[in-house]
Structures are given as structure tokens and as C-alpha cells.
């Protein structure tokens, strides 16, 4: 398990970067989604996977009994998921508006927007 998760995280990062470098806007959006999942998985892994009890202090105790799950990485991941959904929604809306106005989804064709503006009435 200690070797499998870093390999999976590396593959997700490589896949996300590969998709972002493609010419299609849809692949760029999928690349952003995959990079978000890779970052969440990395934060989860850094937080040390433990099969412990929740981080609650029992009544009458002075501290938490070992082993316990660290709640900070879990809170960071929940925040990252919400921010990731917001970025994905904005990217999809921007993609839709760009495709409607330029009538293409190819990034190479979008570089020549000056010519498209001159041709349109």
C-alpha cells in the first residue's frame, strides 16, 4: 500500500498534465479534473493512513488515545473538493461560451481570433 498510492498519484498527475497539453478544450477540462483528484489523493496520503478511532477526547480523559485519525487532512480535502467543483463549473461555462462565440473547440484555431472577428458581420 505504501508503494501503490504514490504510483497511482504519479500516474494521475502524468495523465492530467498530458490531457491539459492536448488541443481539445474538453480534454483540458478532463485534465483539470484528474489533477484535482491527484492533489486530493496526495493530501490524503500525506495525512498518514491509519485505521484508528476518530479524534475525539473521551469524557474524563486528558488526551486522545493512540492511534487516531488526523482530521486536518480530511478537512483540507473537503475544502479542495468544493474549490475544485467551483473551478470545474467555471471552466465548463467558459468553454461553452467560447465554443458558441468562436464556433470551434480546437485551441490552435482559437489563436487566430482576430481573423474571425474581421470575417463576422
TrEMBL record:
Superkingdom field: Bacteria
Gene3D superfamilies cross-referenced by the UniProt entry: 1.10.287.3510
One CC-aspect GO term: plasma membrane
InterPro entries from the UniProt entry: CPA3_antiporter_subunitC, NUOK/Mnh_C1-like
Annotated compartments: Cell membrane
Family classification: Belongs to the CPA3 antiporters (TC 2.A.63) subunit C family.
Protein name: Na+/H+ antiporter subunit C
Amino acid at each position: 500500500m505504501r508503494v501503490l498510492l504514490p504510483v497511482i498519484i504519479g500516474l494521475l498527475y502524468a495523465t492530467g498534465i498530458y490531457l491539459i497539453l492536448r488541443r481539445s478544450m474538453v480534454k483540458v477540462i478532463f485534465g483539470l479534473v484528474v489533477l484535482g483528484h491527484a492533489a486530493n489523493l496526495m493530501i490524503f496520503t500525506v495525512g498518514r493512513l491509519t485505521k484508528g478511532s476518530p479524534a475525539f477526547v473521551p469524557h474524563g480523559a486528558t488526551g486522545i488515545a493512540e492511534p487516531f485519525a488526523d482530521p486536518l487532512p480530511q478537512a483540507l480535502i473537503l475544502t479542495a473538493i468544493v474549490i475544485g467543483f467551483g473551478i470545474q463549473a467555471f471552466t465548463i461555462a467558459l468553454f461553452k461560451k467560447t465554443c458558441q462565440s468562436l464556433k470551434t473547440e480546437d485551441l490552435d484555431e482559437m489563436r487566430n481570433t482576430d481573423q474571425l472577428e474581421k470575417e463576422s458581420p
